[in-house]
């Protein structure tokens, strides 16, 4: 990391909204959502108070990861259009403040989850923060075009943490949820990289389109979409989810593959439009799968299934 704030640029301290921005609220909301699904789908009934504490700790841990990511990546954020306005490169928060903020939140979230819920969930949260901040951000992101493939594990852990918080152990079911998010991550982020490649090129980040080119990236997106479709069905195939989930996963998986195929076949003039279409749908895909899992979990919890 080479980003520094000079004396002329030094700030007295950011406003509350700047520190909130460091937490990456959009990413945090997805983390909390998938963790909540893992928690409610787990066997047994977690006490509501402990459940809320667990989700808050997971949310804070995710925010800590975001703050540490923004601290380390402030130099590349400063040269990318879509990130230049973030609090550190914009000079609203000093890098040292962001680092201290992130480390404090990380420690607190792990301790609260361990002391109030259980140490298995806390250990998984600690590993997730470390994996995202160190393995992905400080190493993989700037070293290899496979950064998203390997680094996707960090975003796939929340449902496993939620399950562990509720049950005290990890079984096949949360690992299937992990596998869905892990397989979904490359086509999701490579679709983004196709229409943001100039940003990544300026920052020197070796995203797949900048390293292998657009045609290869589109082929890999399509290959991952073919893999994702049956992986998305896995909870139903293994009897973990019900028929409603099976129908939703089949329909959403088919549409994901269709859009990936359109992206594969489009000419240069239309590929960015197709990439944006796939990127937007990929968010709907993941949200839809976990929403149905949540509905089925609530139906079981309330005795409707």
Automatic annotation (TrEMBL):
Q: Please state the pathway this protein functions in, per its UniProt record.
A: Porphyrin-containing compound metabolism; heme O biosynthesis; heme O from protoheme: step 1/1
Q: Where in or outside the cell? A: Cell membrane
Membrane topology term: Multi-pass membrane protein
Q: Which domain of life is it from?
A: Bacteria
Q: Which CDD domains match?
A: PT_UbiA_Cox10
The yes or no answer to whether the keyword Membrane is present is: yes
Q: Which residues cross the membrane?
A: 27-44, 50-72, 93-113, 119-140, 147-166, 178-200, 221-238, 244-262, 283-302
The keyword ATP-binding is annotated on this UniProt entry: no
- Cellular component terms per the entry's GO annotation: plasma membrane
This protein is called Protoheme IX farnesyltransferase
Organism field = Propylenella binzhouense
């Amino acid at each position: 990391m080479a980003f520094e704030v000079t004396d002329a640029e030094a700030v007295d301290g950011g406003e509350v909204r700047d520190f909130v921005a460091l937490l990456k609220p959009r990413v945090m909301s997805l983390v909390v959502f998938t963790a909540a699904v893992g928690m409610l789908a787990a066997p047994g009934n977690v006490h509501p108070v402990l459940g809320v504490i667990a989700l808050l700790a997971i949310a804070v841990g995710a925010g800590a990861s975001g703050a540490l990511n923004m601290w380390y990546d402030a130099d590349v954020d400063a040269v990318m259009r879509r990130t230049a306005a973030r609090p550190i490169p914009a000079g609203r928060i000093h890098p040292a403040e962001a680092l201290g903020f992130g480390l404090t939140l990380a420690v607190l979230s792990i301790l609260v989850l361990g002391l109030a819920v259980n140490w298995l969930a806390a250990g998984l949260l600690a590993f997730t923060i470390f994996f995202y901040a160190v393995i992905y951000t400080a190493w993989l992101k700037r070293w290899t075009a496979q950064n998203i493939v390997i680094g996707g594990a960090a975003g796939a852990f929340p449902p496993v943490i939620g399950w562990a918080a509720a049950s005290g152990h990890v079984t096949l079911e949360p690992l299937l949820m992990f596998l869905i998010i892990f397989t979904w991550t490359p086509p999701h982020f490579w679709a983004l990289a196709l229409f943001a490649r100039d940003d990544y090129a300026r920052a020197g980040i070796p995203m797949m389109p900048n390293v292998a080119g657009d045609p290869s990236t589109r082929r890999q997106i399509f290959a991952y979409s073919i893999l994702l479709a049956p992986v998305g069905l896995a909870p139903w195939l293994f009897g973990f989810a019900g028929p409603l989930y099976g129908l939703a996963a089949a329909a959403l998986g088919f549409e994901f593959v269709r859009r990936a195929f359109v992206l594969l076949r489009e000419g240069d003039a239309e590929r960015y439009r197709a990439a944006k279409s796939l990127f937007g749908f990929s968010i709907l895909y993941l949200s839809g799968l976990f929403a149905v899992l949540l509905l089925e979990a609530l139906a079981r919890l309330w005795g409707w299934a």
